[in-house]
Amino acid sequence: xxxxxxxxxxxxxxxxxxxxxxxxxxxxxxxxxxxxxxxxxxxxxxxxxxxxxxxxxxxxxxxxxxxxxxxxxxxxxxxxxxxxxxxxxxxxxxxxxxxxxxxxxxxxxxxxxxxxxxxxxxxxxxxxxxxxxxxxxxxxxxxxxxxxxxxxxxxxxxxxxxxxxxxxxxxxxxxxxxxxxxxxxxxxxxxxxxxxxxxxxxxxxxxxxxxxxxxxxxxxxxxxxxxxxxxxxxxxxxxxxxxxxxxxxxxxxxxxxxxxxxxxxxxxxxxxxxxxxxxxxxxxxxxxxxxxxxxxxxxxxxxxxxxxxxxxxxxxxxxxxxxxxxxxxxxxxxxxxxxxxxxxxxxxxxxxxxxxxxxxxxxxxxxxxxxxxxxxxxxxxxxxxxxxxxxxxxxxxxxxxxxxxxxxxxxxxx
Length: 414
Description:
Shape: globular
Strand content: 5-15%
Radius of gyration: 24 Å
Number of domains: 2
Helix content: 40-55%
Largest sheet: 5 strands, mixed
CATH architecture of the largest domain: 3-Layer(aba) Sandwich
Number of strands: 14
CATH class of the largest domain: Alpha Beta
CATH topology of the largest domain: D-Maltodextrin-Binding Protein, domain 2
């Protein structure tokens, strides 16, 4: 080969390496990332603005994965059994993540990160990771959001009555009695079965000092409190047992609810109702303290890689990129869906929008770890069925606790 031929060959190789981004992949790679329908457009925009493909040579197709955990689990069961996966990377919620990890479907991710990476994480998120994102010591999911539940209240109405946000359950009841009228309930929530009832039950049970899956005195205290608000104090609608979060939001924005516990997505929902919205109509305060403590808990979504991902190395490159200390703050600035309490993120987003309330709750130390069970989906069904039966007076409180203990023991023995 002549010197001229060698030079031409060298230039061609340099061009090829530059073309594929210097990633080490022999040919262009395309990965499929599955996310909830609400997150598709935002992630596409983020990938483009962050320049992932330009920097790595890896193309990304963002697709909608099934939204409901049972449907999603069914889809992935068939795929994994066939030794494949429709996704290289998935954005996954707590409920499905526990099922996937215990089934051995997820690739360990510890090798992607060093100690410096974890120094960016706030203590409340690190605690959550140990419970909800590791299994048998291995990291299987990296969270991108930290969704605390918030206590929302009608400050405009509170001000009219000279009231301040309740500090305790007892104060919440007293204020609820003042504000409940023929047109408005003092407090409400979405309590339909299908995870909604479990959320509120877990929220109050933590405030009572326990875990709802244990069917102990803390759960007894929490659900009796709901029952009392409905039937004794008459400040909480029994009809909430048929409502999801969309229905709860409609009630709140139609001036039929004065206080509620709700996830952070209501921040944008409220502001989207232009004719109704005013800042004082959707105010946020710290959660009222239960008998044990003032606490809420956070749920999270995060990135996982199926062990049967068709493009494993490229998938790892994507997860490492999208969760890096450099890119996580940029994502949070683009979309509240990526908001969390990592130090880099909080420094970037400042005290505006929903971030100010996440900071308020985090600084106050009221964000606890979500109540956990290794068979979360099945255990949730047991709790919801029995709590719903008690709240509709189909069984007594003692029967609820007794049957719950028995069914949880049977679940553990399977």
